[in-house]
Amino acid sequence: MAITVFRDPVFELHEQPDMHPERPERVRAMYETLDGASFTDYLIAGEPRDATDEELRAVHTAEYIDSVATSAERDLTVFDADTAANRHSYAAARRASGCAAAAVDAVLDSPRPRALVASRPPGHHAEADHAAGFCFFNHVMVAACHALERGLERIFILDWDVHHGNGTFHSSYRRDDIFYASLHQYPHYPGTGRLGETGADAGSGKTLTVPLPGACDDDDYLYLMHELVAPAVRSYRPDLFIVSAGFDAHHDDPLGGMQLSSRVYASFAALECELADEFCDGRLIYVTEGGYSLTALRESLWEAANVLTGSPANFEPAGTPNDRVREIAKHVSAVHGGF
Ligand SMILES: [Zn+2]
Q1: Which residues have a beta carbon within 5 Å of ligand 1, which is an ion?
Q2: Which of 62, 39, 107 is nearest to 276 (CA)?
Q3: pLDDT at 339 exceeding the cut of 80
Q4: Which of 91, 111, 218, 267 is the most exposed place for a label (fewest CB within 10 A)?
């Protein structure tokens, strides 16, 4: 089946100094993969656009947006120890958020309920008022807020990037209209996402936090997807499913400590498609986040996009999760009152 894909040359212009792992080659690797695949004919180009001021202000403070905007006037603006901007970073980040919002329009207004935003810089570490972890604007939050503006009522964001999406987590923690689920390595950067955090106030129970020890493999993740993520989706009954798609839990990734294969991303996509079909009229949006091994990024994105365009996953690991992962799943399920 055809899906809408958003890509833009500006994503290659954002660069950070000192051999930074979040580099332009990442997006080139993604585009080469998408151009040379058996499913390339099913990828329909979406029209890239910038996020509007209103869309960014739904997630970020006006002062912070201005501070990112002024970085376009200088060759280098350092935001934190590992996040820096050149003259193009603001344009790239703003375009990436705009494409995430445009993906919402695409799944609502076109005959294609699935969309992929292949962009950089990533977004899930970006907080309301500051940049962090290679991220400036929080694209999945911009998309979720835009979807609510468009009349949808409950947005489910699943984040299986190896890092906890602190920005998405904090921005959604007290809301009941955005459910944030994260599977991430812990302790690890950014240090947030502890066991037992389930949301607060109106958002109570609307955050699923699954902190994991390093070296978790396909069996561990698939077990958690079926035992925790799927039940959370079924109890929340979202009308849009957004995936923060970071491919850095892959065993080849230089920044992550997990052991996922490329093929497991096909299984993730298959389950997400199934859940989106069940609750969201099929509406499913992938927005890329991390993933710093170019080989792993190519292979993993291929596996995911192959399934999004309608191929079966053809991958069922036979093993069982380790005891520590079972224990964590039991605890997380219990704090949510049992899934
Ligand atoms: Zn990451």
Answers
A1: 161, 163, 246, 248, 290
A2: 107
A3: no
A4: 111
